[in-house]
């Protein structure tokens, strides 16, 4: 998962020179270095752009800051007047540093290494806009959904149009896969997911497939066990499972969701090791990792954690996890 850099000693040392997240993600040379650290140390199959899902917001007329202790902070958006201040993004003006970072990464990486881009999905971005910060209960956005749904839909539509453009911009500058994060959509009921999350995910996915059908797409939602079929029905290429779902059952449900939506062929799957396993013994890490690999099969599975790696994870255990995957693949 994309937070890989934060558990690495080199990253913590770099933070002393560049103390804010926005510095680290918006200065191309620094973002390149942070992106490369996990790939350089572990030789993973992919290298993920170091950025944040909120990065494109200023280009839509929405400023934000990231408090190192609190997290993202945004002026709450709860009126039509504030929504009208939003506008379609011009990524080349709003985030030229992203393009420069991606282009440099493509030059630095070996040809067989995939360069991964990512975006936040409209519902998850809207939680920050409406709540004004990270939330546990998401009561403000749910209140808006149930009392002023048209207002929320307007926010979501604006976000979807801009995020689709931002995803295309990443592809045009070197990203070879796009992962879309709708992390907080797992707090929605199935009915509300169908209304407030899935349609806006689909806008982004459809735009990517229209312009770049060759680029794989992945969707991730934390605590998404009840939503797997719905996630697969959006037409995404790969569904990323968190650790609360059995891998074999998840694969079956992904294929069921695709079939119900009339989508041909099996879907890919990503995940789903509990990040907490990396705090266990190496014997446990090996056992749990290989169990997932066997259940997933040897086609269409991206082995990964079921959520972001914890900052306190030892580099030794992170490397052991990746080596376990590599060794298993070679044995197969």
Could you walk me through the main structural features you see in this protein, from its secondary elements to its overall organization?
- By secondary structure, the chain is of the alpha/beta class.
- It has a domain at 2-221: TIM Barrel (Alpha-Beta Barrel), CATH 3.20.20.210.
- The protein has 15 helices and nine strands.
- It has helices spanning 9-17, 21-26, 28-42, 80-83, 91-94, 96-108, 122-131, 139-147, 149-172, 190-196, 198-211, 228-232, 247-260, 282-296, 315-331, and strands spanning 46-48, 64-67, 71-74, 114-120, 177-181, 217-220, 238-240, 268-273, 301-305.
- Helix 7 (122-131) crosses helix 8 (139-147).
- 46% of the residues are buried.
What name does CATH use for the topology of the domain at 2-221? TIM Barrel
**What percentage of residues falls in helices of 4 or more residues?**
40-55%
Strand residues, percent: 5-15%
Major β-sheet profile: 7 strands, parallel
CATH class of the domain at 2-221: Alpha Beta
Report, as a whole number of angstroms, the end-to-end distance.
24 Å
Assign an overall shape: globular
Q: Helical segment tally?
A: 15
Number of strands: 9
Q: Enumerate the strands of the largest sheet in spatial order, edge to edge or round the barrel.
A: 1-4-5-6-7-8-9
Give the integer mean of the pLDDT values: 95
SSE order, as H and E?
A: HHHEEEHHHEHHHEHHEHEHEHEH
Low-confidence stretches: none
**What radius of gyration results from the CA coordinates?**
19 Å
**CATH architecture assignment name of the domain at 2-221:** Alpha-Beta Barrel
Computed structural class: alpha/beta
